[in-house]
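Much of what follows relies on a compact textual record of a protein's fold. Each token is a code from a learned vocabulary of local backbone shapes. The record below shows the convention in full.
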Amino acid sequence: MKHILKLTLSTLLIFVMVAGCDTDELHDMNINPNAVQALDMDYFFTAALLGMASNGSSGDNRYTDWRTNMNFASFAIQHFASTGSSAGEKYFDNDVEPLNAPFQFYYRDALRRTTEILKQTGEGGIYEGRKVNTRQAARIIAVFDMHRLTDWYGSVPYTEANKGLEGIFQPKYDKQKAIYTDLLKELDEACAAFNASDADYAGFKKADFVFNGDIALWKKFGYSLMLRLAMRVSNVDAAMAATYVTKAVAGGTMAANTDNAICRMALTPSEWTNQNGISRAFYPGDGGAWQGSLLNKKLIDQLKGTDPASVADDDPRLYIFTQGPITWTANDLGTVIDPNPLNWKGMPSGKDGSMINNEYGGGNPVTPYTIFCAVNTKMMQDDEPYMLMFAAESEFLKAEAVVRGIGTVGGTAQSHYEAGVKLAMQMYTIYDASLSVSDAAVTTYLTNYPYKAAGTNNEKIEQIFTQMWLSKYMMWWEAWSDWRRTGYPVLVASNYPGNATGGTIPRKLVIPAAEAAGNPNYAATATMPDKMTTKVWWDGGAE
């Protein structure tokens, strides 16, 4: 099921030309016939949806995923390992692209589109009082984009962002607590304001290639996002968390994989616009990330279960995430080198090529991808769908909320945990029909690894967030945020020579040098010190 998105992002404006001659020719002479008289919000809305999957970049859909999601976050949370010098694994602060990319691209592209929709459908806009559902959905998209930015950087421009047309070229930085307070309010208002009687519903439905105009699914997306944000602040603002956890659950979060927010990609009309950026970055000759990015020992050991000498207790996702060691070159795409899962191993973190040669080749050169597990090529085609958010996350967050007594949730922690495990294991058929996990296989797994009902709260939270960590495969930057907030699963940091964090896993991205030098508000109100070791507000840092 592939969606062909016929959209040229460089052409988002629909021009209304003034033709002919008016009786008042002097008046006509003062009208620019090439001026923009109307903006097509449907085009902007489709572009905003695509921006969530392109992660800010209309010119290179792999840019931010490749640099930050993969080459930083996937290493930081130990789903992948590399012999390279990533800031996410070796903790070098001179690896600036992964640290800077989201700031550069989200403001320039993704948030610019939602800003224009909200401007033109708001007070004084050309669509004031119209495009009701487009407006509410755009508010949710803006929250989705903005919460990620503040999660990564802490205090960032928010209330004055993307207001260059109003003469604001050096926007102030808003504190993260204030940003979160407003983002939760936006979700609350947007979810309540959807209107099935919207006169412009047909345009909204046509432009919406994620939910096809289904208002009920948009509300589930909004309330699931509300639950995520509420739990993210739960360590530092218990009252705010409880209020919005209760609202989110009452409103109705995603409950089935048919509710998942999925952006369907395509091979046409342009690889830079419509193709899956994660797949493109892994593909030989178009990014080349694969040969240096192999599944981490921490991940493979977790998937292989407590008895590595047996496959009986394996996590079914072992055979979804990887096919074992494979070749993955321009001339040989995906030949399996060793099909026996008992032999499969992950690459340890924090190693360079010499270290790998010494440990696995007796000092002789080795080819890492012939030894360690690689990505499953069935999930890496250029037109694979891009997962934005899924139901399993809501179930795991509800389980945590019940354990910690946050808000009104209902059900038991165990019931939400088990529902989350099942949903997480069974959500990969969107990539390939063979990546299915039967109900019986889920039951076997839960029998082998039952919920720790008699354990301490910390043991329960560790179990819940180990499953959350597994479910965020390919959504690595969100796994990084989950880990920063909870500390689970327990990760052992690398301490590669010359690292910039003292051998600790990074807690924040660093603002681009050009922004730091060009915006005087940076020094006064950005999260400081602006280093990878500094914690953002919800992680226990400054407000």
Q: What stands out?
A: Residues 16 and 38 are 7 Å apart (CA to CA). The domain at 25-277+384-389+474-539 is CATH 1.25.40.390 (Serine Threonine Protein Phosphatase 5, Tetratricopeptide repeat). Residues 1-36 have pLDDT under 50 and may be disordered. Residues 96-121 form the longest helix (26 residues).
